[in-house]
# Entry
Amino acid sequence: MGYEVLARKWRPQVFADVVGQDHVMQTLHNAIETDRLAHAYLFVGPRGTGKTTTARILAKALNCQNRQGSEPCNVCDSCKEIVSGSSLDVIEIDGASNRGIGDVQELRDNVRYSPVRGPFKIYIIDEVHMLTREAFNAILKTLEEPPPHVKFFFATTEPQKVLTTILSRCQRFDLRRISVADITAQLQKIGKAEGITISDDALFAIARGAEGGLRDAESALDQLVSFRGKKIEEADVLSVFGLISREQLEGLADAILDGDIPAIIGATAQIDKSGKDMQRVVLELLDHFRNLLIVLHAGKQTDAFDLPEAQIELLKKQAAKSSDGRLLRIVDLLIDADSRMRYALSKRTLLEASLIRASRAATVATIDELMKQIAALKGSTAPAAVQEAPAEYSVKKKPSDDLARLKTAWPELIEHFCKGAPQAKSYLMDTLPLRANETHVTIGIDPEFASEKASLENQRTLLFIQKTLTGFLKRSVSVDFDVLAGKAPARPAATETLDKKQYYENPAVRSVLEAFSGDIEKVRK
# Structure
């Protein structure tokens, strides 16, 4: 017998051997043991995660002559025939090459014949999404009401292409990408059994490159053995599959976060010289900065990571250099670079330009950071009425005393409010404190501006007013607004209405009035 590749040699033969899909295996175990078997199953997931393998194991379990519990024995004639592909009761169909209505009509005609050996005749259709609409419609009635001895097992990587009328008649199982930890554990197991010595860094590099597909990882290990023999290091993996090392990736991320453009250019030149896949580098960086974002928000919870503990600690150190706003900008730039990379004439130039832009995004302050700094500066220039330090609030002092103080200082407080909330200036000018107690202040609004109450209750405006009044009253207070009954609050006579004439003569005002055919209704200070 010729050489058998590792992916076939180590293909799971029982449910217990399937890696990383415990949620699916447990459900199938229970269905077999309780005899609650559906007539159609749909296995969905990325390549190399065990869709067709699971369907074969389930087929063996249902037709096994010596089944113990829910696992097939793999020694009876039925199991051997299924493994060798010679079983007359388990028919595997490739949906990509047998996708027409004629192929499905033949299947539909054959389902009425009883199985030869086992209790069920089972049809496994791989890449079922490749069937034509006509083929789907031809199988629909058979799928809905098949003979008792028939089972359908479908496998697909693209369930969105399967007709909903088919999906609704199947029990669906979503197989997820296999974690790096599970892939490395399986590769270690294979390596030990096959006499292959492979370093931990090399295992991690293979698992990283497999992108959640165990079959891809096993095929990669097979190729590496052909290349380097039975002693494999990380450098071998990187050279064969065009990956960059973990140290290179982390160093490049450090250079971006530090805004070190010479280091970025040097690293890009080294990547290009060693013949690495530029687009793969972008994807690796994208995944790395995604991890940095998760570190910022996950705190001590590390369930969101599929990484060794040592790498999580390094991510925490890098994340401390930046903020989520800057990291989000870097991620956006890398996503844009990935979409443009496949069409770029010079991938190196595009990579260099994208990483330089990312380094600038990492070192330039975000709008939120600037707003915080501006708010801090404004807070340090509060008016005298806010900066004064009256005696600490006493329970003996009546709230009416606070109300009187607020009314006296209100014009100056309004000026301060308007600096922190300029968009609400026209509404704040016609407000007046109505009520005050130990924990709360109610501000009255001119009835003319009742419709603008929601604007004043804007979270930023409200917080600024509360902060100002807390500093003035020397205790924490909340604030709300209430529309005044009757006439608006009285203003000082000198500022009630100003002369319109001087504004009509102003060239800027006049040009606006002419442009909009407007007029001056009222002038307020």
